[in-house]
Amino acid sequence: MTSSASSTEDDSLTASSDTSPLSSIDSDCSASFTFDPNNNSNVDGNTALFCKLQISDEKHQEVSRKSLQTVVTIGTGTFGRVELVKHEKTGLHYALKILNIHRVVQTRQVDHVYSEKKILEQLDHPFIVNLFTTDQDERNLYIIMEFLPGGELFSYLRESRVFSNSTSRFYAAEIVSALDYLHTHGIAYRDLKPENLMLTKDGHIKMVDFGFAKKLRDRSYTMCGTPEYLAPESLSNKGHNKAVDWWSLGILIYEMMVGRPPFRGKTTSEIYDAIVEHKLKFTRSFNLVAKDLVKKLLVVDRTTRLGCMKNGSLDVIEHRWFEKINWDDLINLRIKPPIIPTLYHAGDHGNFDFYNEPVEPGQVAPQRERDLFREW
Ligand SMILES: Nc1ncnc2c1ncn2[C@@H]1O[C@H](COP(=O)(O)OP(=O)(O)O)[C@@H](O)[C@H]1O
Ligand SMILES: [Mg+2]
Hints:
Layout (H helix, E strand, L loop, with lengths): L67 E9 L3 E8 L5 E8 H6 L3 H13 L8 E6 L3 E7 L4 E2 H8 L4 H20 L2 E2 L8 E3 L5 E3 L6 E2 L16 H5 L5 H17 L9 H10 L10 H10 L16 H4 L9 H5 L35 H4 L6
Antiparallel strand pairs: 1-2, 2-3, 3-5, 4-5, 6-8, 7-10, 8-9
The chain binds adenosine-5'-diphosphate and magnesium ion.
């Protein structure tokens, strides 16, 4: 599946000038922010969800690409594909994302691909895919991740057409928990959609595809500097990419409950027009409390959109629709998922589409293009 998010923003990472991990996030403010997965306090001091993160042993386990055998293609992406692979000795399964270097360079996605790797390496959260290691050869870059055998949330939604209020709430809550974690650590996800949300074997959500994720240079909601010299956008919190995640959450909740997104059109430009027109219509059966939340997330003005104000994600977490969610139980996977994927054996890829097309090896990248990935 291809990513549809646009990347017109001024992305700060470049392959050559900024290869440092997230710990170097800095801003115009004098204080700098150090990434610490165990630190649960927000950059501006807001209390984020209590989240005791466990670093799985698996994450640190040695796995090299050469020891992996292809089973089948499970996804096609913008720059390559994702394969289900099997470790020849242990028999364990992994997902291997393959990105063709030449295509990445041609489409000017070097920064995005780097940030996907660097951001994923730093993350450890129950609702975010685990990255094991990365590799490269003369043609491709490789990202070796845990295999998520449940398949895309998208497939389940299309199959059942709509999700019930409580099913939608469960998935939304797991996503809110992941967004809260990302935002707390200064990362905007920017590509929230059902194709990038996978189910684990137990039916929990895992976000994949950090190709558009971005570490933010500035520190949202934090006033710094002398007030007289503050730019209006600093006052109004404009220009913060985190805000797009809350908007997308609104679209996602709507789509789960109605079976289609709120702003539609036959062409991309028609869809854009519909977004600008912003006619938000709800079905009669749409739960009223959920409707209140969706309306507050789909606010055009980012300064008054839920999740984007001074309390950050706490405003979303504390919305009435989530009243029934025990967030501590949620993060510790103690809430029973509404759908348990059907799986017959380890490495079962029955929850994925079948990709029949022959796999082309992809072009060998010229040395000058490979040089861009010396730090990979
Ligand atoms: N860890 C994974 N486990 C199982 N399937 C995955 C995994 N990562 C990606 N996929 C599948 O591959 C598709 C494409 O991967 P993604 O990272 O989203 O690439 P792109 O950036 O091209 O959209 C996903 O939509 C999903 O179906
Ligand atoms: Mg994707």
